[in-house]
Design a protein that fits this description.
Elements (H helix, E strand, L loop, with lengths): L2 E2 L10 E3 L10 E7 L4 H17 L3 E7 L22 H12 L7 H4 L6 H11 L3 H17 L7 H14 L6 H7 L3 H16 L4 E2 L1 E5 L4 E5 L4 H12 L3
Parallel strand pairs: 1-5, 3-4
Antiparallel strand pairs: 2-7, 3-6, 6-7
Helix pairs in contact: 1-2, 4-5, 4-8, 5-6, 6-7
Length: about 240
């Protein structure tokens, strides 16, 4: 079962986990397990920007899309008492009040997304052009569903977001290339690789953060304010 985080909870400094074999020039690598429909990940957006401003090149982010909702026929989240689209609305309302980032839950009554998989594949399709494009497209997809009431399970909405990203000119992005890649296997396979890693690690709630230092790693499940993330980064930086 995969679900959204209950919010700011669990261990304050992150539980220790085995460090990865992969090496990186960055002092700290953050594996960020998330989903385009995760309301707590939307609330985490300002925190991520603050962390990047504070730590700069010391941080390397790796976004892993964990596939929160395949279909509503298989989705169950007993922790938040969610098993149907309309039941997501109170959770989004609570997340917005707790995190402070505006969120509009009306989509769950007006045109509820049937799955988070199409948007996840679209993020991977954008990522075939650049990592920056993937990051920006993911944020646009979240903003679209959580503030603009747009159903990001619909292909026409995903293509519109691609055109908006290209028009913004914030990164090198070709909307026509994106539209082509959205129908090819490469983006789907990239998303499947994310699903495989999520399941291999047994991650069942979003967001989840695995923060890797040179000699130690820590895991935190759920939304975390910037001060808590700073402490986790400091801990792995010091080998704790």
């Amino acid at each position: 079962m995969v679900g959204v985080s209950p919010g700011p909870a669990a261990e304050p400094h992150g539980a220790a986990v085995t460090p990865p074999d992969a090496t990186t020039d960055a002092a700290v690598r953050i594996e960020y397990f998330t989903d385009p429909l995760c309301c707590w990940s939307w609330e985490f957006e300002p925190v991520a920007r603050q962390l990047q401003q504070r730590h700069g090149a010391r941080l390397e982010w790796s976004v892993v899309l964990g596939g929160m909702i395949d279909t509503w026929a298989t989705f169950r989240d007993p922790m938040n008492d969610v098993g149907a689209p309309a039941q997501f609305a109170p959770l989004w309302h609570m997340a917005g009040r707790a995190g402070g980032t505006p969120i509009d839950p009306a989509i769950w009554h007006l045109d509820p997304p049937g799955s988070s998989y199409p948007a996840s594949v679209a993020v991977k399709a954008a990522g075939l052009q650049s990592g920056e494009a993937a990051q920006m497209y993911l944020r646009m997809a979240r903003e679209a569903v959580m503030t603009r009431r747009l159903n990001i399970a619909r292909r026409d909405v995903l293509l519109t977001l691609g055109r908006e990203l290209a028009a913004a000119g914030s990164c090198s992005f070709d909307a026509d290339v994106f539209a082509t890649e959205l129908g090819r296997d490469a983006a789907l396979e990239a998303f499947r690789a994310d699903l495989q890693r999520t399941r291999f690690l047994g991650i069942g709630r979003f967001p989840t953060f695995i923060v890797h230092g040179a000699s130690s790693s820590r895991i935190a499940v759920g939304y975390r304010p910037v001060e808590v993330m700073d402490r986790i980064i400091a801990a792995v930086s010091n080998g704790a």
